[in-house]
Amino acid sequence: MTVQNKSLTCAVTEFKYDEETGVFECYGNTKGNIDHAKDRTMDGAYQKSIDQHKANGTMPKMFWAHNPHELPVGKWLDMREDAKGLWMKGKLSKTTMGSDIEVLAKDGALDSFSIGYIEVDSTFNSEKGCNDLLEVDIKETSWVNFACNEESRLVGIKSMLDKNELPTKRDLEKLLREQGLSKKQAEKIASKYDPTPAPECVFAAMSKLS
Q1: Strand, coil or helix: 127
Q2: What is the pLDDT of residues 74-108, one digit of tens each?
Q3: How far apart are CA 60 and CA 54, in angstroms?
Q4: What is the H or E stretch that residue 96 is in?
Q5: For residue range 106-163, what is the model confidence (pLDDT) as tens digits?
Q6: What is the C-alpha to C-alpha distance for residues 118 and 46, in angstroms, rounded to an integer?
Q7: Which residues lie below 8 Å from residue 184, measured CB to CB, with a gap of 6+?
Q8: How far apart are CA 120 and CA 71, in angstroms?
Q9: Could you give the CA distance from residue 66 to residue 136 in angstroms, rounded to a whole number?
Q10: Cβ distance 149 to 35 under 8 Å?
Q11: Which residues contact residue 89 at a Cβ distance below 8 angstroms, ignoring those fewer than 6 apart?
């Protein structure tokens, strides 16, 4: 199976902020529900990644909107998988960006997180019509504007085009489904798509469409 960099987004639930220490708690992602991209995170999907991070003395990065080209906006202090999903504890840095996010979060203007991950193991659930994520490798957890997987996927594909890369057949199919096409229509279009290196003119044409 080919691993891919992806993102899962959810609204903040049970957000708790300590004004004295600047430490906050939230869920980076929840599980059990089918999202707009027809993915469903299953029990135990985060655990191996959590264990590996803790064994290595590392934590996922804390970014703004999955942007690895900018400095982090804070640091994650702890994480665990519980019955609801990926619980995380973090602290925003007293940088310009970190302070801006802190103010907006207190005002309720920011209320969403998204995890950036690599899909390690999954299976298609024909009964539910979704992709069940069995194991994910968590690379970063970002503050984001929209609790909407469509937005995350569009941003990711545009970023790939900027780097002269093309989305996979599966990413294209999901994007088409999110734009209103039926499963059969999306599969038919994606089946004729060849995500191999293309001439510059193809990238230019796709960039205009996006």
Answers
A1: coil
A2: 999 999 999 988 999 999 999 999 999 998 888 87
A3: 10
A4: helix 96-107
A5: 887 887 888 888 999 999 999 989 889 999 999 999 998 865 434 334 444 545 555 6
A6: 11
A7: none
A8: 27
A9: 16
A10: yes
A11: 23, 24, 25, 76, 77, 78, 79
